Amino acid sequence: MRFADGLQVSDGLRVERWTKRAGIFVLIALITLGALAFGPMVFSPGATERLSALFIYVILAVMWNLLAGYGGLVSVGQQAFFGLGAYAAIRLSAAGVAVYPALLLAALVVGGLAVPIGEVMLRLSGGEFAIGMWVVAELAHLLVNLDPLVQGETGTSLIALDAFAVAARRADTYWASLAAMALALALVFLMLRGRLGTALQAIRDDDVAAASVGVRVLATKRVVFVLAAAGAALAGALWLATAITFQPHAYFSVQWTAYMIFMTLVGGLGTFEGPVLGALLFFVIETAFGASGVWYLVGLGAAALGFALFAPRGLWGGFTARFAPRLLPLGYHVVLARTLVAAPAKEGKAP
User: Fold this and answer.
1) pLDDT value of residue 350
2) Fewer CB atoms < 10 Å away: N or C end of the chain?
3) Cα(314)–Cα(282) distance, rounded to whole angstroms?
C-alpha cells in the first residue's frame, strides 16, 4: 500500500515475548498476591486454614508439572519427598531449630538428599522410573518408621507449635504457605524464561532430538528432579504446620501423588497456568464433596480418567489451543508486523 506523502506499508515478522495483555495479567497476579497477604486479617479462621491448604496444593501441582510436564519424568512416588519434608521438619525442630525456619530448612535438606537419589533414579526412564520412585517412597516410609522419635505408625507432633497462640499459629502458617507458593511460582516462571526453560521445552517435545542439538538432557533433568523434590518437601513441611501431627502412613500415602496428577492432568500438563487452575478446581471439589467419603475419591478418579481420554490437554491446554490467550511472557511468538517506511523513488524522477 502506498501513501501520497511518500510512505508505504511494509510487512515483516517480529518476535515478541511481552505483550500488553501479558503485562496487565502479571500486574493483576502481583496485586492478587499482595491482597492475599492480608488474608488472616480479613478471612474467618476456617477460610484462612482452607486457603493455606490451597497454597500447598498449588505448590504440589506446579512441582509435579515441572517434573512430568516439562522434564518428562512421570513419578508416582513424589509422596516420598512430601513425607520426608514433614519428617525433616520434625527432626530439625527437635534439634532446637526455630519451628518456621525449620520448615524451609527441611525443604533444603530433602533437596540435598534428592541429589544422590536422582543420580540413581535418572538412570531409569518411562515406566521403570515411575515404579522406581514408588519403591523409593515405600523405602523412605519404612526407614522413617524405624526412628524412635516417630514411634512407628503412631507418629508424633510438631510440639514446638504449641508455644504459639492458635490465631498466631494459623496466621503464620498462612503467610508461610503464601510465601512458599509465591516463591515456587516465581522460581518456575524464571526458570522457564531462561536457557534452562528452553532446554526443558525441547526435552518435553522430544528428548532425543533435544540431545542431538546439544541440549544437556541429563543435567537438565537432574536440576528439575532436585527442585521438584525440594518443592514437594516444602509442601509436606507446611502441611505438617497445618495439621501439627505426623503419622507416617498419612504423609507417605500415594494419595498425595494422585492429587498432584489429578491437578496437573485436569489443569493442563506442560503448561504454567494449567496446574494452578487444576489446584483451584481440586480445592473447590474437595471443599464441596470432601465429606462424601469414598465417592469423593471415585469422582476424582473418574474425572481424571475422563480428561485423560477426552481432553488430554486439560482445561488450560484446550483453552490455549483454541484462543491462544498468551497471558504470561514465557515463550516467544512470531507476529506479522506492518510498519510505515519511505517509498522507493520511481525511475526517471527525482526523489
Assistant:
1) 44
2) C
3) 13
